[in-house]
Design brief:
The structure is a single chain. This protein is mainly β and 627 residues long. The chain is 0% helix and 51% strand. Among the domains are: 194 residues; 89 residues. The protein contains no helices and 63 strands. It has a 32-stranded parallel sheet that branches. The chain is rod-shaped, with a radius of gyration of 45 Å. The termini are far apart.
């Protein structure tokens, strides 16, 4: 056998010789007193005649199997480094223990394994270009170290060791990985298709495509890559990457810092904890059961478009924000009547809150294409902005909303009891059970639509006007009033009532273009004499403007207080019209005051009457605004 010039058959003992061979990123550190052994024949590993070095290689030797030779490991063998060149074969009929590295470019068949061990504190690489090799790491260790894997492997096992070992994986692993010791840390940067049994530490920055069983109470997993199999976590899992299905069991703690939950996450039992430290990105279901805990920490829940996201819980948490371009539904598995709470909800898909859950929502936005589904519960919402649909299942629901901005439509809410506390824009034809608003403000109805609360209607400005307006001023909106209704202190305009609404003597105002709203005539403005000095025989003229034509029978009057005298300005029919009534008073010589004239706040009919053409008596109070 001719050896390369830079190789020595036997190295001088006790001389420290370091050989660094860079083969596709593999780093080899040669120990003190080592031999280089080349295979010179086909044969068993234990036979000295197989090797150029004339002895069976041991853990200090560097072995090269080249030129198509075939060597069989017939008994447990220990070696420093092994290289199997392309076209050559090393058959593992027994265990091969390496201390300084392995580069397998050729064939390594057999039913046994390569074991990576360490002498003192060493770091080396192991390369296999076949996915049939089984590798054990940590057997017979007498020092800490690290191993970097390249190429392809089948099964990887990390056994009981007294020292810390780091495994850096750049290989594709198709078999099972067993991390059976908490001192072992496995760092993956490549693709793993077999399952993992983890009782140590597993760090994934690559692609993991099978099941992870994290079963040791002190084990740890961190993912910054992609894990597409099922994760069984019973210890601590820090996630920054994308995962598929997760079962967080026992005392497992799953800390979510980012990434996508692509399939069902089950928080299994008492002691299981899911901590959210970033926007939770969902493509499937969160299932919280059996006393498990979820800490949202005020982070947003995001459901991806094109996916169906479910939140199944025995005790729903308090959500800060839910953004759902995808389908989002809650499933309630507990008992009693808890409250679903959320500060902000946005959806442009279907959003469904489970029956039996009362809901308190700060702000709800239903965008175009969205459908917020109301189902047999009580909902209290600060602001609703709807460009899509508000719909239900026909159950008896109650929706209490402060500000309703409805630019979309509603459907199948015939049993809805709707109450609005603040402003309201009602865009579509409403067919609901009841509607209530008990304070002032403005309700705007879509022109041409019909508002129909079939059971009861309660509109009351409660002392301040409640303005009922059309979305298109001048174009009427329709109302179909129920038999049970209470309407007072409303200022209505552009409304066509499908049946008569009598709001006489309720403080209500007809602002024009109304049909079948029965309101009494009332004074919209009072004009008084200009501020000046008036003397005897001067005429003081007062004018009242009415909201619609009136008919006056008799001679009504206005009561004036001038100093200590009570006087009357009487109705002047000749100067009046059907919508403007003029009252005059001629100043007497003994009328004197330095403090002006006091005008009473009501018209005195003086035995007569003031009505409209339908004999509806007028409201005789004067407005506070005068000119």
């Amino acid at each position: 056998m001719n050896y390369p010039n830079n190789r020595a058959k036997t190295l001088t003992p006790f001389i420290l010789f370091v050989l660094i061979v860079s083969l596709l990123n593999a780093v080899i550190v040669q120990p003190v007193s080592a031999s280089v052994c080349y295979a010179t024949a086909n044969g068993p590993w234990s036979s000295a005649s197989t090797w150029s070095c004339g002895h069976t290689p041991d853990q200090t030797d560097y072995v090269y199997i080249q030129n198509g030779y075939s060597v069989r490991v017939d008994n447990t063998a220990m070696v420093g480094y092994v290289q199997v060149s392309s076209g050559s074969t090393l058959t593992l009929d027994s265990v091969l223990v390496v201390y300084y590295g392995l580069d397998a470019y050729g064939y390594m068949p057999g039913n046994n394994e390569v074991r990576a061990s360490f002498s003192r504190s060493t770091s080396y690489g192991i390369r296999s270009e076949q996915n049939s090799i089984n590798l054990g790491i940590g057997t017979w260790v007498d020092g800490s170290g690290s191993v970097t894997l390249y190429g392809k492997f089948n099964n990887i096992s990390m056994e009981d060791v007294p020292y810390t070992i780091n495994v850096y994986n750049n290989a594709d692993i198709s078999g099972q990985i067993t991390i059976s010791n908490p001192r072992v840390s496995f760092h993956n940067y490549s693709t793993i298709t077999g399952r993992i049994l983890n009782s140590g530490s597993f760090y994934n920055s690559g692609s993991y495509q099978n099941s992870l069983y994290d079963s040791y109470s002190g084990s740890f997993t961190q993912n910054t890559g992609t894990m597409s199999g099922t994760i069984y976590n019973r210890s601590t899992f820090n996630n920054y990457g994308n995962v598929n299905a997760v079962i967080n069991d026992g005392s497992g703690t799953f800390n979510y810092y980012g990434g996508i939950l692509g399939s069902e996450f089950t928080n299994w039992s008492t002691g299981s904890i899911l901590n959210i430290y970033s926007t939770l990105q969902l493509k499937s279901k969160i299932k919280n059961q059996n006393g498990a805990t979820i800490n949202l920490n005020n982070y947003k829940i995001y459901c991806y478009a094109g996916y169906s996201c479910y939140w199944e819980d025995y005790n729903p948490p308090s959500f800060n924000e839910i953004e759902a371009p995808g389908y989002f539904a809650t499933i309630y598995t507990g008992s009693g009547s808890p409250t679903f709470t959320a500060n902000t909800i946005y959806t442009n898909n279907t959003f469904y809150i489970a029956p039996g859950l009362n809901a308190t929502i700060g702000s709800l936005t239903v965008d175009t294409g969205g459908n917020f589904y109301i189902s047999g519960s009580t909902y209290t919402v600060g602001t609703i902005t709807n460009y899509g649909f508000l719909s239900g299942n026909g159950s008896y629901d109650t929706l209490n909303v402060t500000n309703l901005n409805d630019y979309g439509s509603i459907s199948n809410l015939g049993s809805l009891n709707l109450a609005v506390n603040g402003s309201g824009n009602i865009n579509s034809s409403y067919n609901i059970k009841s509607f209530t608003k008990l304070n002032g403000g403005t309700l705007t109805f879509k022109s041409g639509s019909t508002f129909y609360p079939y059971s009861s209607l309660n509109l009351n400005g409660s002392g301040s006007e409640l303005y009922l307006r059309s979305s298109n001023p001048g174009t009427q909106w329709f109302i179909n009033p129920p038999g049970t209704k209470t309407i007072a202190w409303v200022d209505v305009q552009d409304s066509y009532s499908l049946s008569s609404i009598d709001v006489r003597n309720t403080g209500s105002i007809d602002s024009g273009n109304n049909i079948n709203w029965v309101l009494e005539p009332y004074i919209t403005n009072t004009t008084v004499p200009a501020s000046n000095t008036y003397v005897g025989n001067d005429v003081l003229t007062f004018s009242l403007t009415w909201n619609k034509p009136i008919i006056i029978q008799g001679i009504p009057r206005l009561t004036l207080t001038i100093g200590s005298n009570v006087r009357y300005a009487t109705y002047d029919a000749a100067s009046s019209t059907s919508t403007s009534s003029v009252f005059k008073y001629i100043v007497a010589k003994n009328d004197f005051t330095s403090n002006g004239i006091i005008l009473s706040n009501v018209v005195d009919p003086n035995g007569g009457s003031i009505t409209d053409s339908g004999s509806v008596a007028a409201r005789l109070s004067l407005p506070t605004t005068t000119t």
